[in-house]
Automatic annotation (TrEMBL):
Subcellular location: Cytoplasm; Nucleus
SMART domains found in the cross-reference section: AAA
Name of this protein: NUBP1 factor
Keyword terms: 4Fe-4S, ATP-binding, Cytoplasm, Iron, Iron-sulfur, Metal-binding, Nucleotide-binding
Transmembrane segments: none
One Pfam family in the UniProt entry: ParA
Keyword Iron-sulfur: yes
GO BP, sorted A to Z: iron-sulfur cluster assembly
rRNA-binding in keyword set: no
Domain AAA+ ATPase residues, every copy: 15-186
Recorded GO MF terms: 4 iron, 4 sulfur cluster binding; ATP binding; ATP-dependent FeS chaperone activity; metal ion binding
Cellular component, GO, one term: cytosol
Gene from which the chain derives: Nubp1
PROSITE patterns linked to this entry: MRP
Length: 279
């Protein structure tokens, strides 16, 4: 109870919390987390925080252009590393001496660091806390859901690609959310076709042999938030630590990201209003 009260006190100034999950690695979960953080922070009136709890594969520092940055400690706790004045980031990547260092930790040590991130980081007043998680349904996921149960979580955004091999693991992730009573905001399908920039013809690089995310969402009664097409600029922007939304504002992928962000915002505001009415 004392630990729960401590976490509740630290996170009481966080208005909305969104977890980004995927059943499988390499489907673009961290890319979506970064785009979501950049997109929300485009409104300078909002304060956004991005928490990377992928302990063994922290890619957020590079994607946000923060490689080599260090975490500083003050009287009020750890200070996040800021991309913009209204966009703060925290990751285990800031605690490593080199980006190539391997984090070889057992579960309890990982769980301890996740708890420390939630308890000791001085986020301040936050409109959206985006949590980028590792793939799967293991220690880190159970820990973050358990620790955040002391506060308030709007829900999870689940990321997939169109192939059945990816959808299989996403079904497990959806089942995990149901079991731990984590609301599902919706599913995002990444790498959903490729539009040639010259001829404008669309090709299915990863053909959806079983109907893709759209069919899966219909079968499982969850929302499809949107489909993000392949765009080589996304990878280049991530490698350079730049915002893809700013670098390619006219891209079909940017339009898709913006629609997804708007739908997530609408869900969170509606969820918040319902909770206030219940109180």
């Amino acid at each position: 109870p004392a630990e729960a009260a401590e976490l509740r006190e630290r996170l009481r100034a966080v208005r909305h919390t969104v977890l980004v999950l995927s059943g499988k690695g390499g489907v673009g979960k961290s890319t979506l987390s970064a785009a979501l953080a950049h997109g929300l922070a485009a409104d300078e009136r909002r304060q956004i925080a991005l928490l990377d709890i992928d302990i063994c594969g922290p890619s957020i520092p590079k994607m946000m252009g923060l490689e080599g940055e260090q975490v500083h400690q003050s009287g009020s706790g750890w200070s996040p590393v800021y991309v913009e004045e209204n966009l703060g980031v925290m990751s285990v990547g800031f605690l490593l001496s080199s980006p190539d260092d391997a984090v070889i930790w057992r579960g309890p040590k990982k769980n301890g660091l996740i708890k420390q991130f939630l308890r000791d980081v001085d986020w301040g007043e936050i409109d959206y806390l985006i949590v980028d998680t590792p793939p799967g349904t293991s220690d880190e996921h159970l820990s973050i859901v358990q620790y955040l149960s002391a506060t308030h979580v709007d829900g999870a955004v689940i990321v997939t690609t169109p192939q059945e091999i990816s959808l299989q693991d996403v079904r497990k992730e959806i089942n995990f959310c149901h079991k731990v009573k984590l609301p599902i905001i919706g599913v995002v399908e990444n790498m959903s076709g490729f539009v040639c920039p010259k001829c404008k013809k669309e090709s299915q690089i990863f053909p959806p042999t079983t109907g893709g995310a759209e069919k899966m969402c219909q079968n499982l009664n969850v929302s499809l938030l949107g489909k993000v097409p392949l765009d080589p600029q996304i990878g280049r922007s991530c490698d350079r630590g730049q915002s893809f939304l700013s670098e390619a504002p006219e891209s079909p992928a940017t339009l898709s990201y913006r629609n997804i962000i708007q739908r997530i915002q609408e869900y969170c505001e509606q969820h918040h209003s319902q909770e206030e009415r219940m109180i």
